[in-house]
Design brief:
The protein is of the alpha+beta class. The protein has 3 domains: 1-29; 31-145, Immunoglobulin-like (Sandwich); 152-197. 34% of the residues lie in helices and 39% in strands. The protein contains 3 helices and 9 strands. The chain has helices at residues 2-29, 152-176, 184-197, and strands spanning 32-38, 41-42, 47-50, 56-64, 70-81, 84-97, 102-109, 120-129, 135-145. Strands 3-9-8-5-6 form a 5-stranded mixed sheet, covered by helices on one side. Strands 2-1-4-7 form a 4-stranded antiparallel sheet, with no helix packed on it. Strand 8 and strand 9 form a beta hairpin. Helix 2 runs antiparallel to helix 3 (184-197). The chain is elongated and about 70 Å long.
């Protein structure tokens, strides 16, 4: 029994030392970080206004905290809601970032088609991708898209609002007529669609 416990203790100690070494190596190696601006407004502080009626001036600064050169090929501006990507603009802007240095690149992005895809506030991200289309670094913000109410996102919102109103009307009508089930669970389930829509 002592041999088993001694072997187990040695194994745990070796695992802990290996993990500590890996963590310290990762910490000393640093990371690749990204800061970006859209029309001069920093991404990540406040709402990011995206106006489809004009081009946006995108500026990205990549800081390479590692010792190796990082190769950037693409800059992506994307927005999603409910797990669905509503828009994604990929622009090829190839550049290298030497270890321990920062590189800034700027370009104009035509947002003309954005008005038909989204409107309102939604999670937005600016990311830089390498030659294998893997994300090197990214920064997120709340996008304020000045699109059409009849965009894909707008029509979905109108439909969700209409269905929620119908669900509330049905549930409240049953409540007023005292036609709700006696079971609390079934009464709760009766209000579930309306609550989920809200």
């Amino acid at each position: 029994m002592r041999r088993i416990m001694g072997g187990l203790g040695s194994l745990l100690l070796a695992g802990a030392l290996t993990a500590a070494t890996a963590l310290s190596a990762g910490a000393s190696g640093g990371a690749v970080t990204l800061s970006a601006t859209v029309d001069g407004a920093p991404v990540g502080s406040g709402d990011l206004v995206l106006d489809p009626s004009r081009s946006a001036r995108i500026s990205v600064t990549v800081h390479n905290g590692t010792d190796a050169v990082r190769h950037v090929k693409t800059v992506r501006l994307a927005g999603a809601a409910l797990g669905l990507t509503l828009f994604s603009y990929d622009t090829t802007v190839p550049f290298d970032v030497p270890g321990g240095q920062s590189v800034t690149r700027s370009f104009a992005l035509d947002l003309g088609h954005l008005g038909a895809r989204a409107t309102g506030l939604l999670p937005t991200e600016v990311a830089v991708l390498d030659v294998d289309r893997e994300v090197v670094a990214a920064v997120g913000a709340t996008g304020d898209v000045r699109g059409s109410l009849w965009s894909v996102h707008g029509v979905f919102g109108i439909a969700a609002l209409g269905l929620t109103a119908l669900a509330w009307a049905g549930a409240l009508r049953a409540l007023a007529r005292r036609r709700l089930p006696a079971s609390r669970w079934r009464r709760g389930a009766h209000f579930l669609p309306a609550g989920a829509g809200t």
